[in-house]
Amino acid sequence: MAHFERIRDVISGPFNSEIIGQRTAAGWQLVSIKWRRELPPMEALTEGAFSQDIPYGLRISDECQRLEIEPTENQALMLMMDLLGQDFSYSRQRPE
Q1: What are the DSSP E strand ranges found in the chain?
Q2: Is the dihedral of CA 42, 45, 51, 55 positive or negative?
Q3: Going residue by residue through the chain (96 aa), what tens digit of pLDDT does each one get?
Q4: Max CA pair span of the chain
Q5: What is the spatial distance between Cα 94 and Cα 84, in angstroms, rounded to a whole number?
Q6: Strand pairing of 58-60 and 67-69?
Q7: If residue 74 lies in a helix (H) or strand (E), which one and from where to where?
Q8: Is the dihedral of CA 54, 57, 61, 62 positive or negative?
């Protein structure tokens, strides 16, 4: 099973493609680009756009009109709540 390392670059100025070249040369692979913009005061959100991050345990529905439960993430949340009720230490390693 392959293991992957992930990092996030926060870009604070104009985009410079040099960072992509540097990361690619170091063996990194581009997997995502996230865009945001500040809306002018009188402009409404674009249809299908969300103004906030989607909470862990939820996902955008197929029709893009609402949020629905994401089963795998929801299961992880339920397990954490159950373990919290048992005074289980989250930092303790799980036995193999």
Answers
A1: 58-60, 67-69
A2: positive
A3: 777 788 777 777 787 788 888 889 999 888 888 777 777 777 766 655 666 778 899 988 887 778 899 999 999 999 988 888 887 666 666 655
A4: 56
A5: 15
A6: antiparallel
A7: helix 71-85
A8: positive
The amino acid that residue 75 corresponds to is: Q
Q: How many Å apart are CA 77 and CA 83, to the nearest integer?
A: 10
Model pTM? 0.41
Considering only CA atoms, which of 59, 55, 26, 56 is closest in space to residue 7?
A: 26
CA neighbours within 13 Å on the CB side: how many for 20?
7
CA dist., res. 30 & res. 44, Å (int): 31
